[in-house]
Amino acid sequence: MGALHQGHLALISQAVQENHHVYVSIYVNPTQFGVNEDFSNYPKTLESDLAKLRRLAVEYYRDDDLLGQITAVFTPTTRDMYPVLKPSSEVDGPGSFVTITPLSSILEGASRPVFFRGVATVCMKLFNIVQPDAVYFGQKDVQQTYVIQRMVDDFHLNTRVRVVPTVREDDGLAMSSRNVYLGRRRRKVATVLIRALRAIRAAFHNGQTTREELMAAGQAVITRELEEQRALSPKARALFEVDYFSLADPLSLKELDRVVPEHGAVLSGAIRMLPIEEPQEYEQTGTGGARTTVRLIDNLPLRQLSSIVQRSQRQVGMTPGLYNDARE
Q: Which has the closest alpha carbon to 271: 230, 299, 302, 237?
């Protein structure tokens, strides 16, 4: 999607360690944005993205320990990707689409009903055009990796899905192209999501396994942060809303009432950082300005032993060993 950051570059780095030729695609896909979402404001930074890739390609060329190189960058137009009909963002809009249900209708799909339809469709097109031996996705968008793996399995696509750990800022915020929307004030509060997820994980490691016990640990972090922000004046605070927290089975993503330690779980969540109420003169409010709502997602695997999630990945066809929380 462009607006490249260290998370994207980590995918490329993993790919060049495992393949002779690496193809990078940059395309802001309109069909994964709903009619009221931020497609028009989504950062489109092709020239700076290409400059980053050129520098990276030089580094890789000089590194004799790497197997491969960046062979090509594919930057199609919307006419290239949707040659017959102009793509629609309507739920019932016209077009040729790939739908993966029920995975696409839960969690992120419940809030963004056309999102995974657009993701699956554009990935199917890219896979058909490039014919890759392996494709690389980030753990941050964990539900997306499940959707893509299901599509690869169900349509007998000749590629392997590789999942690379989430890359984070020093304070834990998952790197995302949408972080540029936050601005300084909301950026400080945005870590509440990973803090809540880590509190839930800590409760799990302390022996709590029921949904009620685990979610209570995360809710305590959310409540405390909201109380602190609401105590501030409108010209200083940054408010947010919780979209969802999920405690899901690592194979099906179905919600769990209790985590079986031997099986583990996928813990995920989403929040909306609300518009800044009273932006101050010269305040850095982020791309899109103070009135933009910024939606953030994140996830952590819950497990006691690394082999548990790796076994789960083998069962669903994912490449074992890359989906982990070693950097958490």
A: 299
